[in-house]
Amino acid sequence: MKEEKNSRRSFLTKTIAGISGTVIATGLPLSALASNTNIEVLDVKHDFLTKPYLQAPTNDGITIMWLTNQLCLNWVEYGETEKLGIKVQQCAHGMMNINSKINTVTLTNLKSDTTYYYKVFSKQILDFQPYKITFGDIINSETYHFKTLNPKAKEVSWLVLNDIHDRPKSFGELIQLNQNKPYDFVFLNGDMFDYQTDENQIINHLLNPCSIFSTEKPFMLVRGNHETRGKYSRNLLDYYYNYDKKEYYTFKMGPVFTIVLDTGEDKKDSHPVYGGTVNYDSYREEQAVWLEKQMKSKAFKNAPFRVVMMHIPHYHSDEEHGTTECRRLFGPLFEKYRIDLFVAGHTHEYGMFEPNKDHSYHFVIGGGPETGIRTLIRIEANPKVLNLQMLNDSGKEIGLFQLNSKR
Prior knowledge:
This protein is an alpha+beta fold.
């Protein structure tokens, strides 16, 4: 009997460890289910699943995320030197978050234009009873650093990747084309995946590949049409942190006011592949109302450069439903409020288009995902000039736009 019991416990351990990110019908992660049902999880090393990664930088704050393989009590220690000295925990409604392996801590009230050092810590929870919590080991990351934004900055630069489509090596191969030139963040312009299957895919095909920069430089993301597909697509939103916790948002860095739109799916909502489970038409309508409000703001009007980034291009693309709806809803507003630059992906054919009868602004589409047609886009701006350079994956420059400010 003892041998049979040990065999069963070993099987449970292997099963739970192998699919620890899976959510089952209870709505709880398996590790939580194991604890709540007294199933003993054995021989699973308490460890990080990812390095910490930076999100949503501001003048006085930043968000730090990381994943663990077990439920933990988590915190960040940070400071202006490597001695750190300040401790912050994720807390909501008076309770610290200890029931998730996805950990999010937002640092606030920081000094602008200041370098901070930080570590993340996770304290293992061995047992969680109503009146007694038993803790285990504490693990911590290396010390990393970041810099808060400068509200008076005269320059900004960033890199754009799109249409990776579950090719994790592309992150490193494309980023290295930048050749260590400075940049403030990386923007992921949709279709990092073919579709979402489980947590391991998000870790192995996005978060860990981005760790070559994301411990010290944030990434921002907008969904492509392929981020809306698959049984885990609705969970994907838990793994990154956009401004205002929305999938469409704005931010201003240096002389550039940037608008990010979530273009949704390219097919009609009624298409049988969705099984009646989506409503992207109303979602795009909602964004159009929001978009005009942003374009009426003083920050938008006064910015030397106005940039829009979204996955599906409304011109130089196809005539699918998503494309034409973006054209109908967003295109007139881009003209009315006079944007300067538009950056998209989706078509898998890179292109750089001067203003024409359809659009009065420069129009850029990144390539991908296969070797030979992948691209890296680099954008840098000061109050007078914005430069956009596109490189193919051999490092050759295949396009360059130089825009002069009209304001």
